[in-house]
Amino acid sequence: MSTVSNIAAIARREATVRVRTRSFIVGTLLLVLGTVAIAMVPVVVQYVEGHVNQKVLVYVSAPGLKADPVPTLQTLLNARPATGDGSSAGVTDPFSVTAVTDLAAARASVVDGQANSVLAVERAPGGDLAFTLYTNDSAGGSSSQLIQQAATAIAVADRLDRLGVAPADQATLFSPPAYAIAWPDPARTEPTQGSAELGSSYLLGFGMTILIFMMIILYGNWVAMSVVEEKSSRVMEVILNAATPFQLLAGKVLGVGTAALVQYLFILAAGAVALLLQGRVADLVLGQDGGVALPEGLTVPLLILFCVYGVLGFLLYAVLYAAAGSLVSRQEDISSAVMPMTLVTMAGYFVAVYSSTGLLDIRSGWIEVLSLIPFFSPFIMLGRVMAGGAAVWEVLASIAILVLSIGAALWLAARVYAAGVLLYGQRPGWRAVWRIVRAHG
Amino acid sequence: MGLRVDGLRKQFGEVRALDGVTFAVERGEVFGFLGANGAGKTTTMRIVLGLLQADEGSSSWEDRPNYTWPRRTWGYLPEERGLYARMPVVDQLVFFASLYGIPRSRARREALAWLARFRIPEYADRRADSLSKGNQQKVQFIATILHDPDVLLMDEPFSGLDPVNVALLKAAFLEMRDRGKTLVFSTHQLDMAEELCDSVAIIDRGRLVTAGTTREVKRSTGHQVVRLATSGDGDLGWLRALPSVTVTRPGRDFTELHVDDGSDPQRILRAALEHGDEVFRFEVVDPSLEEVFVERVGALDTEERTLAASEAMA
After folding, report:
1. Residue B83 in contact with partner chain A when CB distance is under 8 A
2. What ipTM was predicted for this assembly?
3. Is B74 on the interface with A (CB under 8 A)?
4. With respect to CATH, is domain B222-286 assigned 3.30.70?
5. Average pLDDT value for residue range A363-389
6. Does B85 contact A at CB distance below 8 Å?
7. Residue A2's closest chain B neighbor by CA?
8. CATH second-level architecture of B3-218?
9. How many angstroms separate the CA of residue B97 from the nearest CA in chain A?
């Protein structure tokens, strides 16, 4: 029979049998639930942010203090960075500030948990303002820091006041100066990333790297398990009479790939639906326009690149997983046989994660080199593209190298596979595998 | 013509698995391949099928090397059951046949017909691992023949079958032969080989001991067997005195003797009558395959001498 129809028949069997297994169905369900949960995270975060209310009590005993510190604190603590898109509109203020006259009672109410903290404002002997924050929160926590900043502003205003500076002049004194951030490299002209932008592209890169890593490890293991299953049940001998080792190998990788794609389509569909419905859910939960948006930086070309690297990376690793599987006869031996692939994927994964989170400099030379090497490029090149540091020719070159190396891996794996599938008993060592490859070459 | 296996040699590491195996199977014959475990039967079959490469020697079918024939020429039933444990029976039969290019609908129809014939139609949609060993073996046989191969190579097809299933499988064998197929099977069960085979080969530790038509092989011992029962049983002195005669089994109901070739067995009947005994039974037969085997190889040893460990080191 022709090679193509045999590969198709083998792939078809592999895919249909696999999608009917309980582990596939349960696994898909769990992944879909996980995806929906992750897609809903922004809603949850907004909900939590919008509903946590810090009650701050203020006790003032400072003669000569001109401005009432309560409205000042209220404004300073609830001030938000200007986002310009109005996304914070309608969200309730995180801090509510109330004046009290009895310090002891106020401290007791913090102990009871009715309020979060008491800020005492007093006049120190030197004439300066002195602040004491009574709270159970940690001193380094964000609330304490915000209150300290506000206190400093009140104290500075008080000092200026005592020096005789008019309040109108104070407004100019406090207005922010011009302040810009620029690239150190004069050749770089693209706009620098704001912190929000950086955060979402970091999340995106992280998510895509995890998805590709999962795809390779999980589905690669499926391939190896399926090879060993055929070997240990001796079906291998029956099929080898009908199909060549190359057809078996290619059919198996494509069949598992198809099942994997089915699972991924479910996950992507669930993710897309969840993201589309996010606004509605946010409206329901938050009671108004929650202003939740798609992750920034998710563009169509990026999605296509993600799919290309995902599919090619899977193919490269899957043929090697199949070859490794063909060398063992029992399911228990799979993990040690696929160890080399596992280590290489882990290395690529960690470099990608560390460089996309900024722990490693994604612009350094060795990462640029790694991003062209086939075993690492599926992980690393995406991160470089997202950081805006990869030239088009680099992306195309890494894809071309990846495709060529899949061909080479197929050649090698088919030889190992041809000899390996009829070996029963102890796993052959590396030298024996090399002999096999040469003998069949 | 037919299947020719010529001078096969195969070494696995230190172990010489095959050492010059040569035999011929005529087209349309049933051929028995006899030997203990580890004698080299499986290795020979794998080489004939092209699953393994011989170090030396060749095999051909109808005067052309085996590998030049399409895969569907061959049907292979491996020694250990080779079925997908968790796949429905009929689905995997269709899958195997489709690899040989048989249309799925035809494969399905024929698979169901064979299952009915083997009296297991109700198992068509069951998982293979829910079937008994004997029923799995019948499914395996269907997998071997569903693509209508010209040559069937079957490794221990009768092992683990109960008498009813043995009878069903034997009938299927004979039907295949009548359809003009060439059947090669290995077995320990020498009576089975004697009953079914036109030709046999005996192999021991990778060496061919003897091969030929079943009759030739039986006569290769150089003697015939005579079974004799007379009124004078117990007094065998006169028998032992005859030239070219060996008493192999003195018994109460009959005595068995070997008469060397070239010596007329009828001589014994005459001698018995001359001795004055009444003769109740006088029978001249060829030695059984079992006798040939015991004589040429020694008692059939059932101990596993599997090559697996040495194959792994190769």
Report:
1. yes
2. 0.79
3. yes
4. yes
5. 84
6. yes
7. B101
8. 3-Layer(aba) Sandwich (3.40)
9. 9
Read off the pLDDT of each residue in A84-89 and give the average, rounded to a whole number. Answer: 44
Using a CB-CB distance cutoff of 8 angstroms, which residues of chain A are in contact with residue B12? Answer: none
Q: How far does the CA of residue B49 sit from the closest CA of chain A (Å)? A: 7
Highest mean pLDDT, choosing among A82-96, A161-175, A354-368, B280-294:
B280-294
What pLDDT, in 10s, does the model give residues A191-243?
665 555 555 566 677 778 888 888 899 899 999 999 998 888 888 888 988 99
Q: Taking 90 as the threshold, does the pLDDT of residue B115 lie above it?
A: yes
B82 closest CB neighbour out of A10, A237, A424? A237
Supply the CATH classification number for the domain A51-174: 3.40.190
Rounded Cα distance, A73 and A153, in Å: 9
Give A230's contacts in chain B (Cβ within 8 Å): 84
Residues of chain A with CATH 3.40.190: 51-174
- Beta-carbon separation of B86 and A1 below 8 A: no
- Find the CB nearest A239 among B74, B75, B99: B99
